[in-house]
Write a structure and sequence with these properties.
globular, MetI-like fold, single chain
Length: 276
């Protein structure tokens, strides 16, 4: 008996061609064209103009502060994400599911609201900031405040990459290692890490990309003070407000370049995971 052929939506050649054309058109208009325009505008004054805008005193400081915050944020969230993923997937305790849900708070809360919450707590007139002020410690409108909100908005990325993978793998190999007398560090280095390294690297890349490009929360707690608390995304806004359009697009091209490198790294990691 011949197998019955079930037609699906999109099986018709006309429908398939229409959907493909629509997808390519929208991708080009909404994703590719703005990206190309960033680099076209950035090089509007030629290569010399591009280099000159990058070497601008305020832009150089913004690049340095952005990289400084990212360099501190990534290792902090790397440790936090691994610890949290291990805790949630390897132990059973009351409130475990609630804890796994709370990890997603930075995804659910607007970055601007997160910045306001930190300002309310740690600002000069905030609940904690008032007490810190007695010891001449000021976190807001300085790099510690920028670091705090950046760590907050990026903290779920590593944990969210690791938790599903570690739940799927289970803990049998680690239990066998414990039975054989492996220490905690040996267990992590020889058993856990080889199984999670690609997901861990993926989480680190996403964390770094978000830390470099964060705008909303940083804008609230930084004050956008040139050469003091101005990160690269904030510098783009200030240059645009100063009608330095080419300079704004030059700074934007650096962020776009980081995004492209992140996309390439993501593709390579996904390819390695599929062939692992």
């Amino acid at each position: 008996m011949a197998a019955r052929h079930h037609r699906r939506v999109g099986d018709g050649p006309m429908v398939r061609r229409t959907l493909i054309t629509l997808a390519i058109t929208l991708t080009g208009l909404l994703l590719l064209m703005p990206l190309v325009l960033i680099f076209v505008q950035a090089f509007a004054d030629g290569w010399a103009g591009y280099i000159g805008n990058i070497l601008n005193e305020y832009t150089l400081h913004a690049i340095g502060l952005t990289l400084f915050v990212a360099l501190l944020t990534v290792p902090l969230n790397l440790v936090f994400g691994v610890f949290l993923a291990w805790l949630v997937t390897r132990f059973r305790f009351p409130g475990r599911k609630l804890l796994a849900t709370l990890i997603d708070i930075p995804f659910a809360v607007s970055p601007v609201v997160a910045g306001l919450l930190f300002l309310l707590l740690y600002g000069r007139n905030g609940w904690v900031g008032d007490w810190l002020g007695q010891y001449d410690i000021e976190l807001m409108f300085a790099w510690p405040g920028i670091l705090m909100v950046t760590v907050f908005v990026t903290c779920p990325f590593v944990a969210r990459e690791l938790i599903p993978l570690m739940q799927q793998q289970g803990g049998e190999e680690e239990e066998a290692g414990v039975v054989l007398g492996a220490s905690g560090w040996q267990l992590f280095r020889r058993v856990t890490f080889p199984n999670i390294r690609w997901a861990l690297l993926y989480g680190v890349i996403l964390t770094n990309a978000r830390a470099v490009g964060e705008f909303g929360a940083v804008s609230v707690v930084s004050g956008s003070i040139r050469s003091e608390t101005n990160t690269l995304p904030l510098q783009v806004e200030l240059l645009y407000q100063d009608y330095n359009i080419v300079g704004a697009f030059t700074a934007s091209s650096l962020l776009a370049g980081i995004a492209l490198m992140t996309l390439i790294a993501k593709t390579v990691i996904e390819w390695r995971q599929s062939h692992h």
